[in-house]
Structures are given as C-alpha cells and as structure tokens.
Specification:
Blueprint: E1 7-8, H1 14-37, H2 40-56, E2 60-61, H3 64-97, H4 107-125, H5 129-140, H6 145-152, H7 156-180
Antiparallel strand pairs: 1-2
Amino acid sequence: MARGPSTAVASDAPSSQIESLYTHHHGWLHGWLRRRLGNSCDAADLAHDAFVRLIQKPRCFDSAPEARAYLRAMANGMCVDLWRRRQIEQMWLEELAARPEALAPSAEHQVIVIQALLEIDGMLRSMPVKAANAFVMAVACEMSDKEVAQELGVSTRMVRKYVAQAMLHCLMLEARSVATDPPILVHPAAPVGTGSA
C-alpha cells in the first residue's frame, strides 16, 4: 500500500526536516494553542518551545496526522505545566498580599521562592501520590505519624515508609542535579603566614 511522503525529523538532515515540519504545522499548532489558552502570546511561546524540543530530541513521523497528534500531545502537556506554574505564582502572590508591606521580600527573593516552589511541585508530582501526600503532611504541615496515618487510612509504619521513600526521592533528584551542574573550579589561595620572615 502506497504511503504519502513522510514527515521526518532525523539526524541526517535535521534542518530541512524541522523547516518542513515548522512550515506545515506551526500555524496549525499556534491556532490550537490559542484556542486552548485563550491567549495569543502564550500560544506563540509554547508553539516555539514545542519546535525547540523537536530540535533537541528529533523524531520521525510517517504522516502529517501523526506529526500533528504528537505535537498536540506535547503541547497539551506544556499547557498543563503553564497552568500549574501560574497557579503556584498566583498562590504566592496571594500569600504576599496578606503580609504587611514592610515584610514583603525583595523582587529577587520572590523569584527564588517561586522557582523553589516550582521545583518542589515538580518533585512531588514525580512521586507516588501517597508518598507525596505523606511527605507534605509530615514535613510541611508538621503532622505526627499517627495523624498522617489517620488522614491517609494507612498504618503509622506505612507512613514512615512513605516519608522515607519521598526523602530518598529528594536525595536522588538532588544528586542528579549536582551531577549535571558543571564543576566550579576554585584555585586554592596561597597559605597565609607560611613564608619566611
């Protein structure tokens, strides 16, 4: 059975294939995102990011419908991430508004807090649901093992297991982050007071 020309992204000729994908599908993807988000600027940003991801991780598609299905699934996940980020930012802004103005952190500190909250949210979403819930209740809400167990309908032994599982997950993520960061080379300073008088 004859097939139409494939829409491919592969390492042998990535530029022309990405260009073809962009030419044939960018307008459609931007329109889909604009309808989904109700915002042309966010739609343009996410459509751009979707094609950047295709450049970073090339894929082959046998047909235009297959390419669009993949782009739509990827863009839908990006929309969910955007909405979660906005929700976290909004919650932080509401928390700030409830504080006296004199206690408001600097703009730089606010950016650091929002980034930390986004990283924590991502970490929690990558855990099993009960482990994440037990971790938040025990660590953030300072609930006892017994209180967490009652809330989740499990034994206190299981709560300790969930919290340990979450802590291990945090350590693994931190280790992975450290492993991917470039090393910082520090030249040791000359010892002080060791030279001859």
